[in-house]
Amino acid sequence: MTPEEREQALRARLERIEALERELKAKESAKKQVPLRLSATLWSEIAAWAEEDFRSINGQIEFILTEAVRKRKGKKE
User: Fold this and answer.
1) Would you state the pLDDT for residue 61?
2) Burial level of 37, CB count in 10 A (0-12/13-18/19+)?
3) CB 50 within 8 A of CB 60
4) What is the pLDDT of residues 55-71, one digit of tens each?
5) I need a labelling partner for 60 at 20 to 30 A (CA). Which of 44, 69, 70, 76 fits?
6) Dihedral sign of CA atoms 35, 40, 46, 47 in order
């Protein structure tokens, strides 16, 4: 294999790797919609908390759930 052929093969391989990385990122960043029923009191508390943290209510709920999952994973390790 000539150096040019080797370089071309390596570039093609790199392009495939980059395409796979982009695909993985797209899958990871995809959001799922979940219907959620909350009491008016809980909704108000989360809304106030979100405002304090400069987040949307949806962003605050996602933050709370993410933190809960991190804490749970931390206890199992």
Assistant:
1) 96
2) exposed
3) yes
4) 999 999 999 999 999 99
5) 76
6) positive
Token code pair at residue 38 = 């909350």
pTM of the model: 0.58
Could you tell me the two tokens for 57? Answer: 């209510």
Looking up tokens 């943290």, which residue turns up? Answer: 53
Ordered alpha helix ranges (H), the chain: 3-29, 40-52, 57-76
Tell me which amino acid residue 55 is: R
Confidence class for position 33, pLDDT limits 50, 70, 90:
confident
Directed axis angle between helix 40-52 and helix 57-76, to 10°? 90
Paired tokens of 6: 């080797």
